[in-house]
Each structure stands twice: as structure tokens, then as C-alpha cells.
């Protein structure tokens, strides 16, 4: 049975931080964004996470991590799809991310590399940009299109 993806709760935060530490991903500032964090669980075991930091019409996708024993099975893709659906629900227009190791993973979702100074100023002031990720991290952006409304 595949892991179940749900919104995170504060009770999930210690397991999320442990997964991020094990994945060598920054944890700084994530506690302020639990309301827009997703978790994947096998039963009660947290095996994946993805988070969005919302900044008006922009968002920062961060903390996409999967437990080592489940990597390569599509869970990271599923978490990313759920996070982008969450961005759509919040009417986000641009999603940014920083990465040092997953530059080949995110283009499949439409993310493209951009210069660091092309990032929305609100996102540039985030903890991820100001201190958690090094200046050498790759910066990527995805422009979200409005989803078509249902036709009756």
C-alpha cells in the first residue's frame, strides 16, 4: 500500500525535522510553515515531506524529502505534485526553489533555472534565501497557469 499524503500537524514537526536532517536539507524557518507542509506516512511512520512558504502570489517550495528506503519509487514526485496543487489552491502564480542536489529532478514539473536576482523580493527575504541555503544553490522557478474552470 502506498504512503498516504496529508497536511502536516505540529505533532509531525519532530519527525519532519529528523527526515530533513537525514537528507541534509535545511530546517531553519520550517516551523513557521507547518500549515502549508505535507507529509507522507506509511501507517504512523513519516516517510516523506514537502513544504510551501507562501508570499502573496509567490511561494517557495522547500523540504522535499523522502526516507532513504523509499527513494526512487515516485514518492518525491507525488509529494511535489501535491505541493503544486496546494499552490494552485492558494492562487500562487510563481513557485521558486533552491537546490544543491536536485537540479535534475524539478524540470519534469516545468521548473527552469533562473538567476538569483530574478526571484520575487518577498521570497528573497525568506530564511531559505537569506541564510539556510548557500549562495551557490541553484535557483529555479515555475510559472503556474490558472487551472481551467469546469464547463457546465
Task: Provide a descriptive summary of the structure in words.
- This protein has helices at 13-22, 75-89, 121-124, 127-132; strands at 4-7, 37-42, 45-55, 58-66, 94-99, 112-113, 138-143.
- By secondary structure, the protein is of the alpha+beta class.
- It has a seven-stranded mixed beta sheet with strand order 1-2-3-4-5-7-6, sandwiched between helices.
- The N and C termini lie far apart (36 Å).
- The mean pLDDT is 90.
Q: Top keywords for this entry?
A:
4 helices; 152 residues; globular; alpha+beta; 7-stranded mixed beta sheet; Aminopeptidase; 7 strands
Structure in a nutshell:
Helix content is 23%, strand content 29%. It has 152 residues and is an alpha+beta fold.
Amino acid at each position: 500500500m502506498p504512503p498516504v499524503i496529508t497536511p502536516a500537524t505540529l505533532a509531525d514537526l519532530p519527525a519532519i525535522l529528523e527526515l530533513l536532517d537525514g537528507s541534509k536539507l535545511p530546517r531553519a524557518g520550517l516551523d513557521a510553515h507547518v500549515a502549508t507542509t505535507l507529509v507522507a506516512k506509511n501507517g504512523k511512520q513519516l516517510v516523506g515531506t514537502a513544504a510551501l512558504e507562501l508570499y502573496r502570489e509567490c511561494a517557495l517550495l522547500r523540504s522535499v524529502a523522502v526516507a532513504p528506503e523509499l527513494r526512487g519509487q515516485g514518492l518525491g514526485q507525488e509529494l511535489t505534485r501535491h505541493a503544486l496543487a496546494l499552490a494552485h489552491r492558494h492562487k500562487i502564480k510563481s513557485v521558486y526553489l533552491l537546490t544543491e542536489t536536485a537540479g535534475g529532478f524539478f524540470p519534469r514539473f516545468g521548473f527552469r533555472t533562473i538567476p538569483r536576482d530574478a526571484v520575487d523580493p518577498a521570497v528573497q527575504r525568506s530564511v531559505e534565501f537569506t541564510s539556510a541555503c548557500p549562495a551557490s544553490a541553484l535557483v529555479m522557478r515555475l510559472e503556474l497557469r490558472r487551472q481551467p474552470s469546469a464547463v457546465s
